[in-house]
Hints:
By secondary structure, this protein is an alpha+beta fold. It has one domain. It contains 8 helices and 9 strands. The strands form 3 sheets. A 4-stranded mixed β-sheet has the order 3-7-8-9. Helix 2 crosses helix 7 and helix 5 (87-97) runs antiparallel to helix 8 (204-215). The protein is globular and about 60 Å long. The relative contact order is 0.20. It binds iron/sulfur cluster.
Amino acid sequence: MDNRLKEMLIRQLQDELDHAKKINEEEIAAQIRRIGFHCLMCGRCCRRESGDNRVALMPEEIRRIQVGMNLRMEDVAEPLNIEAESPAEECSLHERSGMIDEDGNIHTFGWMLHRKENRDCCFIPDERNNNKCGIYELRPLMCSTYPFYMEELKLMTSECEGLGKKTGMVQSRELAHMVLERYLCELKDTILTYENYSSFTTGPKGKESAVSDMKQGYLNYIVHNSEGKCRTTRNIRTAVYRLIYNE
Ligand code: SF4
C-alpha cells in the first residue's frame, strides 16, 4: 500500500467516523425492534462448523480478557487471518495476495480471538450440549452485539436463528448502544492501524521462505494493528502461537 492510497483510506474512514458520530441511537434501537432478536444460546456463532466464526479484537479487548483471565496475549488473540480450509491453502492464498515480505513473514491487519485446533472459539466448551461462553462478562463487542453490526452507516445483520424473535424496549436500546459503540471503536481502531502502517518489500524469495517454513510446521506473521506491529509464530499442527515481539 503506497502513501497516497493510505492517506485516501484514512480520509474516507475519518469521513465515515464523522457521520457515524451523528447516528441516532433511538433510531437504531427501533430498527432492532422491527427486525427482532432473541439469543437462543445455540453457540453456532462460536463454532466453526456453522460457518465463519472469526471474532475481530481491538487491543483494549485483548487486554481486558488477558487481565480478567490471567492469560498470555497469544492464548487470547491470533492474527486476523484469511479463512482457509487448511494451512497449505492459507499459505497459497497469502502467496496470491502479495502479503508475504522478502523474509517470509505473512503480514495481516489486526487480531482475532484465538481458536482451537478444530477452529471453534477457544472459550466455548468442547461438549456440543454446553454453549456457555468461558469469558461471558469479558467477551468482545463483536460477540455481545452479534448478529448486528454497522457498515457504511447502516445497520446490518449476520445469519442467526435468533433473528425475527420479539425484542423488548430495554434490550433493543442496550443492543443499539453497544452496536454504535462498536462501530465507532472499530473505525477509530482502523484509522490508527493505517496511520501506524509501514509498507514492506515483497519478492519471490519471501514466498519460497514461507512455503519452506510451512513444510517445517510453522508460519511467521507480522500483525499490523492500532498500537504498532507485532511478530508471532504459529505452529500449524497444533494451532499454538508464540509471541516474538510487540512494538
Ligand atoms: S468469546 Fe464467547 S461468545 Fe465470543 S465466540 Fe467465544 S465463546 Fe462465543
